[in-house]
């Protein structure tokens, strides 16, 4: 039988987990407090971290406009299999979250994206973005530099460039997959940018897209050159859609 102290701790942990809201919401939540980090916070392989809906940020700021940053500029660095939940990411960071392997992001909110909100570096496997949202990104929100799949569900994006981008000029390229289910996007340049020549696929379904394009197709490269755009609309294979609404939602 559990002691009273262990029982209380167990119930508290269960209650905290139960409050993770991964439903689609289009109103940004208020932070419960603020934590400023002098260095990136690492979540170990297979571990879970609950941010308790505090705003987590870097101090001093690591944001340098659209200059590409590294792992050390992020707020959170997730090892393979790590899960991060219930976090508000503040504006004073260059990279937000870096996933070194497949990871899970539950109810994460980015208030003001600098370079990228989250970067996925796994070589294989699936990373999940469940609930949450991002706003005010000059360029990309979800950057997919590694391989495997990024699966996004119940996500909200407002006033951003690309909600998702499969890296167009990384030194190592992959056939990447991305899926978007029940997302709401308002005022984005495009939901997904993908590389048709590398076998990328993306799908957007059951979603509301207001003043936002669905997908752009590119010819990617591994030389670091700027990739060229090959199409600006779904083609049914590289980019497929189902039940997408563009007004009144």
UniProtKB/TrEMBL annotation:
<feature type="signal peptide">
    <location>
        <begin position="1"/>
        <end position="17"/>
    </location>
</feature>
<dbReference type="GO" id="GO:0030570">
    <property type="term" value="F:pectate lyase activity"/>
</dbReference>
<comment type="similarity">
    <text>Belongs to the polysaccharide lyase 3 family.</text>
</comment>
<comment type="function">
    <text>Pectinolytic enzyme consist of four classes of enzymes: pectin lyase, polygalacturonase, pectin methylesterase and rhamnogalacturonase. Among pectinolytic enzymes, pectin lyase is the most important in depolymerization of pectin, since it cleaves internal glycosidic bonds of highly methylated pectins. Favors pectate, the anion, over pectin, the methyl ester.</text>
</comment>
<protein>
    <recommendedName>
        <fullName>Pectate lyase</fullName>
        <ecNumber>4.2.2.2</ecNumber>
    </recommendedName>
</protein>
<keyword id="KW-0106">Calcium</keyword>
<keyword id="KW-0732">Signal</keyword>
<keyword id="KW-0964">Secreted</keyword>
<dbReference type="GO" id="GO:0005576">
    <property type="term" value="C:extracellular region"/>
</dbReference>
<dbReference type="InterPro" id="IPR011050">
    <property type="entry name" value="Pectin_lyase_fold/virulence"/>
</dbReference>
<dbReference type="Pfam" id="PF03211">
    <property type="entry name" value="Pectate_lyase"/>
</dbReference>
<keyword id="KW-0456">Lyase</keyword>
<dbReference type="GO" id="GO:0045490">
    <property type="term" value="P:pectin catabolic process"/>
</dbReference>
<dbReference type="InterPro" id="IPR004898">
    <property type="entry name" value="Pectate_lyase_PlyH/PlyE-like"/>
</dbReference>
<dbReference type="InterPro" id="IPR012334">
    <property type="entry name" value="Pectin_lyas_fold"/>
</dbReference>
């Amino acid at each position: 039988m559990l002691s009273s102290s262990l029982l209380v701790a167990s119930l508290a942990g269960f209650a905290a987990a139960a409050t993770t809201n991964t439903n689609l919401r289009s109103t940004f939540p208020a932070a419960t407090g603020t934590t400023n980090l002098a260095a990136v916070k690492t979540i170990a392989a297979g571990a879970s971290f609950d941010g308790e809906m505090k705003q987590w940020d870097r101090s001093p700021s690591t944001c340098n406009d659209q200059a590409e940053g590294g792992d050390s500029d992020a707020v959170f660095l997730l090892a393979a299999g790590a899960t991060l939940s219930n976090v508000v990411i503040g504006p004073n960071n260059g990279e937000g979250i870096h996933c070194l392997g497949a990871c899970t992001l539950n109810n994460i909110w980015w208030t003001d994206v600098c370079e990228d909100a989250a970067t996925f570096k796994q070589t294989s496997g699936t990373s999940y973005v469940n609930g949450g949202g991002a706003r005010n990104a000059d360029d990309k929100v979800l950057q997919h530099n590694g391989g495997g799949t990024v699966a996004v569900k119940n996500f909200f994006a407002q006033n951003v460039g690309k909600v998702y981008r499969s890296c167009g000029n990384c030194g190592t390229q992959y056939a990447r997959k991305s899926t978007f289910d029940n997302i709401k996007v308002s005022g984005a340049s495009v939901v997904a940018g993908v590389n048709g020549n590398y076998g990328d696929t993306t799908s957007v379904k059951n979603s509301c897209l207001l003043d936002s394009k669905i997908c752009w197709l590119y010819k990617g490269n591994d030389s670091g050159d700027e990739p060229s755009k090959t199409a600006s609309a779904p083609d049914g294979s590289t980019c497929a859609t189902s039940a997408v609404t563009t007004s009144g939602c």
